[in-house]
Structure formats: structure tokens, C-alpha cells
Amino acid sequence: MTSPWTVRSPVESERDSFALLAKAHEAAVSDRAAATGVRKLVQESWQRSLSHRVDPSLAGAEPELTAEQLRELRRRHPLASVLPVVHNLLIRHAFEAGLIVAVGDESGRLLWIDGDHVLRQKAEAMLFVEGADWSERRVGTSAPGTALALNHGIQIQRAEHFNQLAHPWSCTAVPIRDPDSGAVLGVIDITGGDEAVAPQTLPLVEAAVAAVEAELRIQRLGLPPDRGTAARFQVALAPPPPRKAAPAGLQVLGRDHGQLELGGATLEVSPRHAEMLTLLAWHREGLSAERLALLLSDQAAGVDTLRAEMVRLRKALDPLGPTFTISSRPYRLDTPIELDAQRVLAFLERGAHRVALGAYRGPVLPSSTAPGVAAIRAEVSSRLREAMLSDASAELLLEYARTEEATYDTEVWRACLEMLPARSPKRATVVARLKRIDAELG
After folding, report:
1. I need a labelling partner for 380 at 20 to 30 A (CA). Which of 41, 135, 159, 162 fits?
2. What angle separates helix 371-391 from helix 340-349, to the nearest 10 degrees?
3. 3-state secondary structure of 104
4. Which residues form the GAF domain (predicted)?
5. Residue ranges covered by each domain of the chain
């Protein structure tokens, strides 16, 4: 049994004091969540913040880097070469809108901050400065830290911040991914007043992130093969390397004829050739003649027909030049094609749901009856629908519900009704739509 006169070490006393403080903060967080009805993801972020022993009453994002260390970290970071894209798309507009734009690394450390000068000076009070660590582990709930923790774009408004010093601020942040490996490279954040969390801000940042990732991909295409990975992390202080043409793209969403784009040239391809190119683009490792024939038709005896059609497809691709070829045994695209359907899925994977919906122009080759194409069509459609139902805002879900694909989807319309506020004038439209669906479908 411990004596009440036992002398306790300073470390033990500090630990016990923090334990009491943490319990008080946890109770306050629970009461605050119950009182304000905060979003579930915000409440979960608050709990993670408590588990990291973050004190919500103190500024915790103290810069731990010297000026030289910060310069070196910037110099070596892969996002250094794409800062001009961020400037053109976001920063130069931030001055006019009274906002701050920050670019952080994969751990949440802010490397570059620009924008409204008066606002930047005010943000220094909460240590929102270059070199500061704004991860959840250090400052608790914030757009840059929580976006990295959840691995998708997010908006945090005023009192949703865990740190009380950040309550006057709102912010939107989206992670940036490596276009080759998919690993998170960093995060782009917009901070300011209510304008920073306006409905159009998140899609704007998502579009900027997509442009940054595309720029990274293009820059890497221009690197000499012998320079390896290290060259990808150089700072663009010297003139940028020569760029090669963008990869080939195939448009198959909401259309029966495919549209192939390569090096500025556009080629319309027949429905059958669009099916073949779609399957080869989807199965990048290649397909045997037998397997491709089965994916195009449920009749296994179609191999001879496939080979004859492949000859015609290669001839149809001649206008694109000798760089665009299809290998045999297995059939494989020597020049990779990026499907517009694959771009939609890529946007969904990183949480850019609004951008994904904007890029979705309809089902993949809607009139195709090829089994392989039908499977791709179903996968893309299903993943978009699931993402909309699970993660989309009420506004975005309504936008999806109005698409031709979801016109008669009662589950989607009922989900809209559940998400809309009780006093929303849009509820009447949703109710009328559900009644119409019931009447038409009996």
C-alpha cells in the first residue's frame, strides 16, 4: 500500500497531472460534440488528438527546424518543382480573396506559405508558419493534419479545430499523391475565414491537386532514364527538362464510339475497336488471344475473328504514327492508354468525389454487350455510387441523383432526403421525385 507521505518524482507528478487534464479535456470534447452535433469524422479526430496528448489550450505547432534545415527540406522535396502550378491556380488568386495557401509535406510540416500578407501575420499567433508541424499528432484537428490522417480532402470550420487558438479560422486541405506509386507526397491547404470552406473551395483545391499530380507525371516523362529516382526530387532552379507529349487517352464514358487522343491528334474509333482498346487499357499486363476473345464475346470460338479484327484495328491506328503499336502473344499496348474511366476511379480513391462526378460523363461504352466491357462498366458505376452514398455531401449527392444513371435509384434519393436539413426547400423536390418513381414503377 502506498503511503500518503510517499515522495513523488517530478515526472510522475507531471504524468498524473496530464492524466487528470486529459480526462477533463475528453469530457469537454464529449460534451462539446453532444451540444453542437459535430460531424462524426471531426469527433473521431478529436479523440485521436486526445490520444496524442495534445493540449487544446496551447499552441503546439512550434517550428523545430532551423532556417537552414527548412531550406534543405524544401530543396529536396518532390513538390518543389511543381510550385509554379500551385501559384498559377491558387496563390495568385488568394491575395484577392484574402486567403492563405500552404503546401506541407507528407508528415504535415508546412514548407511553403503564401497569400494575403495581413492574414499571414495574424496566423502567426497560432504558429501557422513555415516549418511548423501541423499534423494531428502535434496540433490536433486541422484541415492539413486531418486530411493526411484520413487520406482524403476535408474542410474544417472554426470551432471544429481541436486547438482553441484556431477557432477563428476555417480551412480546406487535400493530400497530394505520387502519380507512380500512389504514396502521399504532401498536402495543399487553404486557410482563412468562411471563404476558405465555401462549397466551391474543396473542388477548387482538388482540381489544383490533380493538376499538380499531372505536372509531376509530365516532368518525369521528360527525365533521362539514367538519372533515376534521385532526379525526381531536384528543385526546378534550372530550366525545366524538355517535356514529352502527354500519354495517350481514350474517352469511353457515355459514348459508344471511342475517342483516342495522342500527341495532340484525335482519332475516332469504331465501337468494336473501342471495346478492344478499353480491355487492353484496363488489363495493362496484356491478354492472350483466347482471353481477349472471351471478354469480347461469350463464344470461345471467336479467336480467328479476333485476329482479323486486330489487323483492322492496327491499320486504323496508323494515323497516330509508328509510336502507337499493339504487341502480340499476349496482346498488349506498347503505348499505355489512360482511360477516362480510370481517371474517375483515381479521383475517388483520393477522396476527390466532386471532381470524380464531374469527370463521369456516363457509363463505359453504354451500348456494348461485350462481357469484359460490361464488367468494367459495372465496376466503375458501382464504385462511384458507393462513394456518393458513403462520403458525399447532401449537395453532391443531389447532383449525382440528378444524373441519368441515378434517376430511378430510390436508395440514392432517400439518402438525399435523410441528409438534407429539416427546413431545406430542396426536400420538397426530393419527396416529389420519390413519389414519381413509385408511381412510374408501380
Report:
1. 41
2. 30
3. strand
4. 118-215
5. 14-219, 245-391, 393-441
CA distance 294 to 263: 32
Average pLDDT over residues 228-233: 36
Are the beta carbons of 332 and 326 closer than 8 angstroms? yes
Fold that domain 14-219 belongs to in CATH: Beta-Lactamase (3.30.450)
**Number of neighbouring beta carbons within 10 Å of residue 361:** 14
Residue found by looking up cell 484495328 in the block = 313
CA distance 10 to 246: 62
How confident is the model at residue 241, as a pLDDT? 42
Percent of the chain beyond pLDDT 70?
83
Give the start-end residues of each E strand in 348-392: none
Fold classified for 245-391: Arc Repressor Mutant, subunit A (1.10.10)
Q: Which residues pair with 253 in a beta bridge?
A: 364
CA dist 342 and 326 (Å) reads: 20
Q: How far apart are CA 272 and CA 251, in angstroms?
A: 14
Measured between alpha carbons, how far is 295 from 292 in angstroms, rounded to an integer?
5
Convert the pLDDT of each residue in 330-346 to its tens digit.
999 888 888 999 989 98
> Cα-flanking dihedrals φ and ψ of residue 115, to 5°?
130, -155
Within 10 A of 31 (CB to CB), how many other CB atoms are there? 10
Torsion angle, CA of 65/68/71/74, rounded to 10 degrees? -50
At 441, is the secondary structure helix, strand, or coil? helix
